[in-house]
Each structure stands twice: as structure tokens, then as C-alpha cells.
Amino acid sequence: MSILIYAESAEGKFKKVAFELASYAKKVAESLGTTVTALTVNISDVSELGKYGVDKVLKVSNDKLAGFNAKAYADVIKQAAEKEGTKVVLLSSTTDSIYLSPLVAVALNAGFASNVVGLPVSTSPFQVKRNAFSNKAFNITQIDTDVKVLGLAKNSYGLFESTGAAAAEDFNPTIGDNDFGVKVESVEKVSGKVSIADADIVVSGGRGLKGPENWGLVEDLAAVLGAATACSKPVSDLGWRPHSEHVGQTGKPVATNLYIAIGISGAIQHIAGINSSKVKVVINNDPEAPFFKVADYGVVGDAFEIVPQLTEKLKAFKAQHS
Amino acid sequence: MKILVCISHVPDTTSKINFTNGDSEFDTNGVQYVINPNDEFGLTRAIWFQEQQGANVTVVNVGGPDTEPTLRKALAIGANEAIRVNANPTDGFFVAKQLAEVIKNGGYDLVIAGKESLDYNGGMVPGMIAGILGSNFLNSCTALTIDGNNVKAVREIDGGKETVSTTLPLIIGGQKGLVEEKDLRIPNMRGIMTARTKALTILEPVDAAVNTKAVKFEKPAPKSAVKLVSADNLDELINLLHNEAKVI
Ligand SMILES: Cc1cc2nc3c(=O)[nH]c(=O)nc-3n(C[C@H](O)[C@H](O)[C@H](O)COP(=O)(O)OP(=O)(O)OC[C@H]3O[C@@H](n4cnc5c(N)ncnc54)[C@H](O)[C@@H]3O)c2cc1C
């Protein structure tokens, strides 16, 4: 009755969230006195998973699953869970996993808790802590079904290495043609840039930057930090930046280690989307800007003077510390 | 085409979040309720299909009588009729079961739900409906066009987007992009007047399992005050980020 995780990958490599999920699963497995099994799709070398506490890997290799398909993938996860007799299935919070999780829960007749932010508060009854109210509160949820599905919020647990090797085993689930009612015609990825979803650091600009011609400031700082760039809603509404960069309640959620907000006032709808970031730095010329109330570090002053200086100083710092 | 738009009735984002009864219940005192923003994009897209392609639009909510003003607002925006399933929506699976029942009985071609609601942020209902009904399902949908039974849509993915094709019947989890924010509809006087005469049907819930329950709420620990660094001492900021916060 080992715990099952779906170890997400892209282009033949595991995503970082897969290792975070494995680290988390290892701890949950210890408290339940069981082991961790990972399910992988079309990955040849799965050895890395052992480092993060996975005991066994079910390797699925199937051309039909070359592209992500929620219904088919959910079906595969269901079959793996049944084969393992698992009581707890764990998924991460990438866009794909969020798409999958409710389908998996229904298929397994399982209670489902999403946005889980820590280890179970109790395992009997089974209770977990989740984000709620746009990160303004937590909710302890009890799952009463025999099988449970959990979605782990991004960056909420961290990576923990352990010793051990994962034994790999080929797994051949049956995949029905009726799983393919939704067909992918084309995929457009923003290339060469760190995406908000994968980034550990996000540098974000607001209306205080005055215009799109000034975005070099944000991009230069992001480049030094290996960060993704983002913006507030009016900035994307004004067409200064693409909508895919808009973060907040109606935009993308950001749960990074470091969020740097430049010329953003800190309206509640913006904060709702970035609140679960660990460390927040604010640069704003208005000392009364509400963002200072939720920030960890702040600089009051003109972004046009501060940001280029900060970028130069960070360049020097990085050169010294690399 | 018959469209069903699932409407979640949620506290406005600016609401103060408090709990009562030993932190076991959300305190609704003084809270302003709105149509869940993700659902509002879906509703406006549905009204577009009504105006351009003659679709019939029904809105539905699983909730108590207190949610009726939210449904009336959706009617004032242009939905043809409304349904309220009279039950307390405490668990995503229970809600999905109720909605699946409405869909089965109503023969809807397209069901638009929001990808998540802003109260419990569960992100589970649209996927669960699809799981229960075995329908085609598309989450994080940012564009949708329909020609006969054929659907072309765009879905957000991490770091980009994906164009997909599928067919009706279809369930989507929608979000901003289905329409632009500037195109969101607000009720006008005529809409508000006619909404009063439109049908709002109340259905009793069907039996369904309640798989999860919220047992307690907590607020985040109070934050310590921001550390301000002077604009001419940016080395100190770097030092703090490196040695104290350990993020660079
Ligand atoms: C239903 C709803 C949903 C919403 N969803 C979102 C959302 O998802 N995301 C979002 O961001 N917003 C959202 N908003 C909008 C939100 O309320 C704010 O309007 C928005 O976040 C403000 O963006 P801003 O801070 O960039 O602009 P402004 O409010 O114009 O603030 C700009 C800031 O820049 C500072 N500034 C100006 N010049 C300089 C300078 N030279 N150097 C340093 N600082 C400077 C100013 O002091 C000010 O604090 C939503 C609103 C509603 C009603």
C-alpha cells in the first residue's frame, strides 16, 4: 500500500517539483510506515528519484502518451494506484497536475485536497493544512475516504535528499482510445526565458515604471538573478507587457523563494497572487505604498535610480560568489 | 446550443477574512459577495455565444438562499435562466455530483466553470464533473470558439499555451482570456428589470458522498515589520538577501 506520486517531467527530464513531491512523500510514508512508489511517463533514466526517497519506480513507456493528455494520464495514474493498492496519491501543482488531480480523485473514488502546504497535521483522522481565501488563511481539511489524493502547493515543502536507490519496473497500463477526445494541435512556449511557473526568483514591475520602454530595468535585474519577469495587472492591460506575465488574483499565482516588486502599489488583488512567495522585496517611491506592509525588505526611492545600481551591485556579487 | 455556466458565490477579494465558532467557520459578517471572477469571464463568453450563435444560457449555483442575489446578477448580465441547488457547498466532490446531475437532466452541450473559486481555491469542481460524466474536459481555458459540434480552444500551460481541438459535449475550467477584462458585462437597468421576471428554479440536492470537510481555519502568523534599507546602501540589501534570507 505504498504511497504513489506522479513524477512530472518535460522533454525527458524530471521537473524540480517531482523531487519536491518525492521529498514530501518520503516523510508522509515514514509517518504511515510505508514506502514511496513513483510513476513516470516516457523517461529512460529514473535513477535520480532514489536520491529523494523514492523506493520503487513504475516506468510507463508509450508513444500515445508522448504529449500530455489529462484524461489518459489520469487513467494511467488510476491503474498504477490500483496495482500498488495505494491509499495516498500525491500530485504537484503545475498547470498539468492541477488539471489531472480532480480526474484522478474521481477515478479512485478518493477525497481530494488541493493546495496542501505542509505535512499532514494528523494521519488518523487524515488532516492536512491547505491555502484558502487567496492565501489569506489556512484551512485544515479532513479527508474521510479510504483512498486520498493530495495536491502539494508549489515550493511549500522543499527538497530533501535521502540515501537509497529506486528499483525500476516497467508498467504497461491499458490506454483506451476514448481518452483522446481532446487533441493538442500546437504548443507555443516562450523560449529562452525563465517561465514564472519554473522560476525560483521573480522580478515584477508595476505602473510605477511609466512605460514599456523602461522594461530593460526589470529584464536586466532578472537576467542577473536568473529570474522570470512579471507585472501587475494594469501593466498588461495597458499592453506594456504580455498577459502571460500578469500576476495576482486574476493573473498567475507566484510562489517563489524571492519576489521583487518594483513600482507596484501592493493592492490586495495583486498581493493575493504573490503572498505565498517566501521573501518579498519592494522598491517604491511612496513610503505609504501598501506593499511595504507585506514585504520583508523594502527600499523607498526612485526605481529609475535604484534598480540599475542594484543590478550592477548584484553582478559584482554574483561574480564573487560563483 | 445549451450552455450551463457554474457560478460560485465568493467573498469579494477586499473582504476581511475572519472566523467564528472556535475558528471552525468563516465569518460572513460584513462580507460582500460577488460572482467568482473566473466564472465572470465564462459567463461573459457564454453571453457572447448567446448573442452571436443563438445559444441558451443557464446559470447554476449550489448554495443556500443567500446566494440568490448573485444568481440574479448573472440573470441581469444576460443569462436566460437560473438554477439553485439548495445545499451547503462544503465539499468539491459533493458540489460536482450535484452539478453533474443538473447537466445530465438538462442535456447541456457546453458547461463552463471557473478554473478555481477564490474562497477555497480548490480547483476541483470542473475536473470532477468531467470525471463523473466522462465528458471531454479542458482546464485553464483562455480562448474558445465553437462551430457546430467542433471546438477550438486554447489552454494555458506552464511557460506558454497550447491550442487544442475537441468536440461537444465539453466541460471547461475557464479563466481570464475567455474574454478580455474590458469586455466583462455589468448589469444595466434593463437587465436588472428583466432579471426579475426570469425563472430561478430551486432543486433539492441528490444524495452524494461528502469526502472532505473543513475542520478548522487558521490565519497566518502576524508578519514582522518590513526591514527598510536606505537607497544609498544597496550593499546592505544584498547582504540581507544572501546571509539572512538566504535566497541569493
Ligand atoms: C477584481 C479585480 C481583480 C484584480 N486582479 C489583479 C491582479 O490579478 N493583479 C494585479 O496586479 N492587480 C489586480 N487588480 C488591480 C489592483 O487592484 C491594482 O489596481 C493594481 O495591482 C495596481 O498596479 P500597480 O501597482 O502596478 O499600479 P499603481 O497602483 O499605479 O501603482 C504604481 C506604484 O508605483 C509607485 N511608483 C511610481 N513611480 C515610481 C518610481 N519612479 N519608482 C518607484 N516606485 C514608483 C507608486 O508609488 C505606486 O505605488 C485587480 C482589481 C480588481 C478590481
Automatic annotation (TrEMBL), chain B:
SMART domains: ETF
Family matches, as Gene3D superfamilies: HUPs (3.40.50.620)
InterPro entries: ETF_a/b_N (IPR014730), ETF_b (IPR012255), Rossmann-like_a/b/a_fold (IPR014729)
Signal peptide boundaries: none
Keyword Metal-binding: no
Keywords assigned by UniProt, alphabetized: Electron transport, Transport
All residue ranges annotated as the Electron transfer flavoprotein alpha/beta-subunit N-terminal domain in the record: 23-212
Protein family membership: Belongs to the ETF beta-subunit/FixA family.
Protein name: Electron transfer flavoprotein subunit beta/FixA family protein
Species this chain originates from: Flavobacterium ginsengisoli
Lineage, broadest ranks: Bacteria, Pseudomonadati, Bacteroidota, Flavobacteriia, Flavobacteriales
